[in-house]
Specification:
The chain is α/β, with parallel strands linked by helices. The protein has two domains: 133 residues, 3-Layer(aba) Sandwich (Rossmann fold); 138 residues, HUPs (Rossmann fold, 3-Layer(aba) Sandwich). The chain is 40% helix and 21% strand. It has eight helices and ten strands. It has a ten-stranded mixed sheet, with helices on both faces. Helix 7 crosses helix 8. The radius of gyration is 19 Å and the shape is elongated.
Length: 282
């Protein structure tokens, strides 16, 4: 269940889109939104008075933006501080009992001093909650339901439970999509025939979905092809608020630790992507 959502903002267009998406979800969940800005610590080198004025000015700008987006009723006044986001975020998430962290996909994700790649790598190791990555240009395309990538893994189980809990909270549906890609599926093991591999992986994914008890509909579909285009296309077919995927925290791409599918989805999905790590679905 989502009670507290934290969103990073540096007042960039990408961050504004993330704040708007997070605010809409907070309203639907009955949750509280906490905007956060981590200012460059070099700015603190100025006088104490100047630093205080800068923090106040940034806070006012963020609060005005929140008001303009029509989500002030679900938002706290912004938290603005001079800090390294890599230190600030884990502390705030723990102290505020944050259930979801939202960041923009472009640039620093809303946190000054971090490149997007650095943000992704950092979040995968140190943030103790699910993370939503919001693309800059979703506009009116943001829907209500959740597309869940399923493969029957333990990481996937955590993502499934998160999606089901949130769908019940906001009264939306979950569309579980199993994309069988023979290039990365069990058929890469020599003693598996392709048909057998498809069946094993598909049955594991279907069993995972069927074992979940939910008050909301959970549909299941299987498509063949590459996993990233398959999930992106599924999101287009449905009224999708976000794609939800699980992550083990160890991937095959150099410099990224989220796993190949979550990492690529963050870059290519047309809607937000929620990444849920094993053991962090609640």
């Amino acid at each position: 269940m989502i009670r507290t959502i934290m969103v990073g903002t540096d007042l960039s267009p990408a961050a504004t889109q993330a704040v708007a998406w997070a605010g809409a979800l907070a309203r639907d969940c009955g949750a509280e939104l906490i905007p956060v800005a981590a200012l460059n610590r070099e700015s603190k080198a100025a006088s104490r008075e100047a630093a205080s004025k800068l923090k106040t000015a940034v806070r006012m700008l963020i609060d005005d933006e929140v008001e303009g987006l029509g989500i002030a009723d679900v938002s706290r006044s912004a938290v603005v501080t001079f800090a390294d986001a890599r230190t600030l975020l884990p502390e705030l998430i723990a102290s505020e009992h944050v259930d979801l962290l939202v960041v923009g996909r472009t640039g620093a994700g809303g946190f000054t001093g971090l490149t997007f790649g650095g943000t992704a790598g950092f979040l995968s190791h140190n943030v103790e909650c699910p993370v939503a990555i919001v693309p800059r240009d979703i506009g009116a395309a943001a829907g209500e339901d959740w597309v869940l990538g399923v493969d029957g893994s333990e990481a996937n189980r955590a993502a499934l439970h998160w999606a089901v809990q949130v769908s019940e909270q906001v009264q939306s549906d979950v569309h579980a999509v199993h994309v069988y890609d023979p290039l990365i599926g069990p058929s890469s093991v020599p003693w598996f025939e392709e048909d057998e591999a498809v069946g094993i992986e598909g049955r594991a994914a279907r069993t995972l979905v069927d074992d979940v008890v939910s008050t909301r509909p959970i549909s299941f579909e299987r498509v063949d092809g590459h996993r990233i285009p398959g999930l992106v296309e599924a999101a287009r077919r449905h009224d999708t608020r976000a794609i939800v995927v699980g992550a083990k925290g160890a991937g095959s791409l150099r410099g990224l630790r989220l796993g190949r599918v979550p990492s690529q989805l963050m870059l290519h999905a047309e809607c937000p992507v929620v990444i849920v790590k094993v053991g962090r679905a609640h």
